[in-house]
Amino acid sequence: MSLQSQAILAGVDAATTVHRMLRTEESAVERSSPYIDVFGAIDELAVPLYFAPLDNLLGACIREHGPAVGIVVTSRRRLHIQRFTAAHELGHFVLEHEGSLDREILTPWSSRKDPRETAADSFAAEFLIPNWLLTMVAQQHAWWDSSRLSDPGTVYQLSLRLGASYSATCWALGAHSILPVPTAAELSKVPPRKLKKELLPSGFEPPHGWADVWKITDRDHGRKIMASPEDILVLDLAESAAAGYLWEVDDSNVPVVRIVHDHSAIDFDRIGAATRRHLLLEISERSPDSRIALRHHRAFDKSDSLGSLSLIACTSGAHPEGEFRGSN
């Protein structure tokens, strides 16, 4: 077995051990949350965690004297990068590596020369996307099918609901033998920018190119998502406009989201067909947990409703500069 293969196995085994020790699977089920709380895990292991405005580094695992250790993560990148960076640095700590300064963090199948970095990469990917979590989220959204999971658009949406990068999610699909490794590797070559554009109406340009684009469906009803300010929520809803029923965003959501696109379309080839309501909502405010709700009701009698769609959105985004003080 090559040194790289040994490093990957070492990282995966270490992540599995930490999951068992911290009972993360039981905690995720109890909280009904699909996200691994990597920052909380670092805190639970009594490792100081700091967010700093790093210019040329994503993160660092610092060992000063003997057992003294600390983890630093950039405050200048988006949340999913902070999460993977923190998990990578945690990997260095758990695997008892010497201090590490990381300018670039990759997926484990990247052609790294240093086995320690490969081990930390594989730890991070396994810790954030264990097989049980990937399976649970894919089944919740009716994606648990090889043909669905071979679609890059589906994998992108899956990565958002795992709080992981698109490339790390592709790696996990191969590592857990859900897809053949060559298939997963090919998927990883599709740029997320292209997948975002496919979800948006022609001619619509999001204000910020780095923002993620969420395709919200009835499978998200009652669930929690971890979005960031400037992210776009795409909704494609059947609407009985001819009968006077319209979808309306709850007024209490206004501080958290704003409508940036609203279009209705009718399928003229089908008699009596419902209108399709296409809504784009932009996350406009940071909030730890906000309810985003829509109701399908008559405009003149809001008590007469055909249905609703609601979800909980944590829109805090990336952690700002400062010491991590524990999860809420």
Automatic annotation (TrEMBL):
<protein>
    <recommendedName>
        <fullName>IrrE N-terminal-like domain-containing protein</fullName>
    </recommendedName>
</protein>
<dbReference type="InterPro" id="IPR010359">
    <property type="entry name" value="IrrE_HExxH"/>
</dbReference>
<feature type="domain" description="IrrE N-terminal-like">
    <location>
        <begin position="68"/>
        <end position="170"/>
    </location>
</feature>
<dbReference type="Pfam" id="PF06114">
    <property type="entry name" value="Peptidase_M78"/>
</dbReference>
<dbReference type="InterPro" id="IPR052345">
    <property type="entry name" value="Rad_response_metalloprotease"/>
</dbReference>
